[in-house]
Amino acid sequence: MTTLCTACDTPVSTQFARVMGDNDDRVHACPNCSTVRDRTTTAEDTPDAPPVTYHPC
């Protein structure tokens, strides 16, 4: 089963969705539309940082 990134509709693997997705395996950012920092930094890490944004190619 292929999961799509909700930000850019790029297919991601089931494993990526399980690891990087939310509790329902929905992926809100993928390697195609975000940086590693965007995907690994949480609001608790940097409370004054702007939210993750979509970065079209």
Overview of the structural elements:
- The protein has 57 residues and is an alpha+beta fold.
- The relative contact order is 0.21.
- The model has no long low-confidence stretch (mean pLDDT 78).
Write the topology of this structure.
Blueprint: E1 3-4, E2 11-12, H1 14-20, H2 36-40
For the largest sheet, list the strands in their spatial order: 1-2
Please work out how many helical segments DSSP would assign.
2
> Element order, helices and strands?
EEHH
How would a textbook summarize the main sheet?
Answer: 2 strands, antiparallel
The overall average pLDDT, rounded, is: 78
- Please bin the fraction of helical residues: 10-25%
Q: In the residues, how many domains can be counted?
A: 1
- What structural category do the secondary elements indicate? alpha+beta
Report the C-alpha radius of gyration, rounded. 11 Å
| Residue windows where pLDDT falls under 50 for at least 5 positions | none
Distance between the termini: 25 Å
How would you summarize this macromolecular structure in one to three sentences?
With 57 residues, the protein is of the alpha+beta class. The chain is 21% helix and 7% strand. It has one domain (1-57).
Features:
57 residues; alpha+beta; 21% helix; globular
